[in-house]
Fold these 4 entries.
Entry 1:
Amino acid sequence: MSLRKFLTLITLCAAVFLSRTASAQKSSYGVTDQENQHRSMAINIVKAINAAEANYKKNHGTYATWTTLVSAGDFTPSGTKWSSEEFPTVAHAMYGQGPEIVPGWKLRLNLSKDGAAYDLVLEDLQDPKCGYAIFSDDRGRVRQGRAVECGELAKGAQ
């Protein structure tokens, strides 16, 4: 390969890298990559809680409190078995008794009186103005939202 072709190739690669880096800073929906990762982690924590709850109900006939899930070893200071390795920040997060179950996220997990149903809210403590939160229940559907005063929710976290 000639020196000219080599330099052209290097320049092209650098241009592609810089354009991807610049576009990765902020998505087309106005959410930064850091915010998107933060929200994605919370969504996947809720999915892990839902999986742990489904397993607990299968084995015990009722859903569990957060304290029970922690005591059973489903969520520990070294992580959880209910997240795939595709999400290492969730799988290896340092879970605590609560209500701030991981740094920056506050859990409210409510069981019905007979333990046959639950709902949960995982609230972003870094967003006191808009109160961004993830919601779910025993049906397993995961939702996200924030205070109506803050306008439409930016898309991007999965």
Entry 2:
Amino acid sequence: MSNQVSQVRSAFLQAASVLGFAFNSPPVERLEDASAHIVGHVLHFGNSKGCVPVLLGVPPSTIAAIQAAGYYYSQLSSSYSQFDAGLFRDTLNDWGFFGPVQLRPAWYTGHTSGAQA
């Protein structure tokens, strides 16, 4: 695992704690072969199986493995190496919430960064 993946993973762990969403790290079991490039697994966002964030520039085989397993994926820049509540909230709103209503964070609006309030 690269240092950048480790930094983004740490920022996601902090974001999950502060913002109240479920994040698993290490990543999901069925993606062990691609785990060096995977930040983790964000439950209930992206699609019904969750989102598997990766860093920009991962091998196409990693993306293919994530898609074949039925997960949503998002390629992230190095700006996710440090926790920024606004950035993480905007990103999760962009991905969409697909979990049970009782698990939806109070801050979740469903508005994408390009949407107008």
Entry 3:
Amino acid sequence: MSGLRHHRNVQGSQSSADPVCKRDRVTKGLHRYCGTRNLHLITCSCCRRQPHLGTARRRDVFLTLLEETRHKYRFVVHGYVLMPEHFHLLITEPEVGDPSVVMKVIKQRFTRQVKRTCRRTSPAQGWLWDTTAVSVWQKRFYDFNVWSERKRMEKLRYMHRNPVKRGLVEQPEHWKWSRFRAYFYGEPGPVRINFQEWPLQIKNRPLNKFGDRRGLNHPLIRKRRE
């Protein structure tokens, strides 16, 4: 987009020497609620808050992977914003798999892309990016059920204002890696918003997908975070 003012490279906070990401206490013990047909506001951070999304190239790669995953697992994206060290994603429940499967696929594919690039640009230090030594993402993710239109608008406004509050840009429309311009100007982007190219199919999910048979008579199925 021409005329956009944004920082192409953003630095994050410093971490300790240990490259292995530890489990985030914020997500420990939390639960996910699936099968409600609510929207899901998903928040995921990079390991030790490192800026693995700190360059324009990596954010573009992430959005390409998100669009491919959206099409394969058949969910609707209502909004997103990519920040240097975390992202927010507002989606429907996928018709293939569930939000946990979607997040696993996106995170694993992005991690492979990052490590492949690092090995290619610095082959002599490829051992630093061995999959057993480095984590790109923190374990787990935060999932908030958005159950009303008021909440949906509240979360979209929060996401679109995030880059401004961080001081990355002066106006929401100046940040290329959110869908503010899609809502405000109707511009297309790398990820299709509020769109599905497959026929809607409402079907019962297998009981063992989200819990035991005690969830059969309950509209809200509780699933522990992985």
Entry 4:
Amino acid sequence: MRRRPRRTSEQRSIAIGMLHGGMQAKDVAAHFGVAASTISRLKGRFNETGRVQDRPRSGRPKKTSAADDRNIVVTSRRNRFMSAPKLTEQFHATSGIRVSTQTIRIASINVALMAGVPTKEVFLRPTTLVCV
């Protein structure tokens, strides 16, 4: 099941403004196409913290920036048959950042760039046909 995209801070601020303007949570929810419980949670968070921004999340921060990810993708497109370990070495040599092969694979998957070696086709010519 896919997660729905999060509402922007601007949309959340508008929702809070609508609630403060006297609209009911279910009407605001219908306007934004979300469940009424989502708006109720947003209202509770705003009352508690006074903000509508996301709270900080746990987890390890990314080692590569968006520009680094683009660099990885460009390098892998230029050298189509280079393996992930080789891309890792080349990325470390150019940027000085050590990343795992999994990071390289994730950067490639995010732009739908899948690794693979093309199969070699055998062209049928009279010289390649073997008659038994």
